[in-house]
Design brief:
Carbonic Anhydrase II; 9% helix; lyase; CA_dom
């Protein structure tokens, strides 16, 4: 039996940050609470942050960490939730069933309103370690349909790659325009403002990994 996903929002405040101390990625750290509901989750999960993985500049179709029927996508968004019974993300990430990640894949098409709101902040986020407040509507990043998805138990795709993540990969991709992709993949440097050499943030995705015996379930309306 399929169970549709839904998001419940409580309060409002966002911080857009480029450059985790250990990772090269653009992330949005939340100062408000989105709760993930439905989809047979073992508890209440609250959104800690979301970030993006993508390929290189141009119309590169290889940037996603998940494939659907062998197809890769130029951009993948990860919404990272933690189990509310552990109160904080830093504690939950070390617990069994502590994390749930929703993966949103993007294909080339129409302009994405959510990404556009982030793009307006790129001039102030040119170098690693910089941050800026930003206001976004999470629904604008998502595809129209949330009822069809894939589910498996796996790990984080970034260090420390802990094996305590319940993955939900939305089957329907969202869209972004080629111009948005070009801006995202050719506007950010992987170094600080006073560091050299400078390189654009590109190809910050981990190639898809073998299943290694994992079961992937498909939920469809």
């Amino acid at each position: 039996m399929w169970l549709a996903l839904s998001f419940v929002v409580y309060v409002l405040l966002l911080l857009l940050k480029f450059g985790d101390p250990e990772l090269d990625q653009v992330s949005v750290k939340l100062g408000f609470r989105y709760r993930l509901r439905g989809a047979g989750l073992p508890g209440r999960f609250y959104l800690d942050s979301f970030h993006f993985h993508f390929g290189k500049s141009g119309l590169d179709e290889h940037g996603s960490e998940h494939l659907i029927n062998g197809r890769s996508f130029p951009l993948e968004m990860h919404l990272v939730f933690y189990n509310g019974k552990y109160y904080r993300f830093e504690y939950a990430k070390r617990q069994q069933n502590g994390l749930a990640v929703v993966a949103v894949l993007y294909k080339f098409g129409r302009e994405n309103l959510g990404l556009e709101s982030l793009m307006r902040n790129l001039p102030s986020l040119k170098y690693k370690g910089q941050s800026s407040p930003v206001s976004v509507d999470l629904a604008e990043f998502l595809p129209h349909g949330l009822q069809n998805y894939y589910r498996y138990k796996g790990s984080l795709t970034t260090p420390p790659c802990t094996q305590n993540v319940l993955w939900t990969v939305l089957e329907e991709p969202a869209e972004l325009s080629p111009l948005q992709y070009k801006a995202l993949s050719s506007s950010l440097f992987t170094t600080g403002p006073n560091e050299k050499p400078t390189h654009f943030l590109q190809n910050n995705y981990r190639p898809p990994q073998p299943l290694n015996g994992r079961t992937v379930s498909r939920y469809k309306e």
